[in-house]
Write a structure and sequence with these properties.
157 residues; two-stranded antiparallel ribbon
Length: 157
């Protein structure tokens, strides 16, 4: 059961190329998030040639991968997917800050949107709830956001 209600219809777009970058860390969470993103893109009419999934070791590496993908000029948007679960050390704060600042910088400096699909949660159950559980699939929401931002970007060109 999903509690997600889209604020507006997901646009149908032609000639779209989207990169999804998934962190391997917490893959039992990030894989369903990436699968949700792919399902949403397919439901929006995109075929397998319209998106590509890349993997990186962890959340901190998402920004580097997104930056390199943007440099190729081959994509209309990048969705970064990760999951950072709070532990007993400040590591959580550093990782969350790093990836958030990295994605924010890319969005400010680049010509295509980078969509933040990184869960930053206090425990594993919160992540499971957001990766296809009772709170829906945040990967799916990230894909919807990517399509809406591509449409916005194109309308401003």
């Amino acid at each position: 059961m999903s509690t997600h209600v889209p604020s507006s219809a997901v646009p149908r777009l032609d000639n779209v190329n989207i990169a999804i970058v998934r962190a391997e860390w917490n893959s039992h969470i990030t894989t369903p998030l990436a699968d949700g993103a792919v399902s949403t893109l397919r439901e929006a009419g995109l075929d397998k040639d319209s998106y590509r999934v890349f993997t990186v070791p962890g959340a901190v590496e998402l920004t580097f991968a997104a930056s390199k993908i943007i440099e190729t000029g081959a994509f209309d948007a990048v969705i970064v997917i990760g999951c950072v679960i709070k532990g007993d050390t400040p590591h959580f704060d550093y990782v969350c800050s790093s990836v958030t600042q990295g994605v924010t910088s890319l969005n400010a400096d680049c010509d295509i949107p980078v969509i933040f699909g990184v869960l930053t949660v206090l425990d594993e159950q919160q992540a499971l709830d957001r990766a296809g559980g009772c709170l829906g699939n945040k990967g799916s929401e990230a894909a919807e956001t990517a399509l809406k931002m591509i449409a916005l970007n194109r309308s401003l060109d």
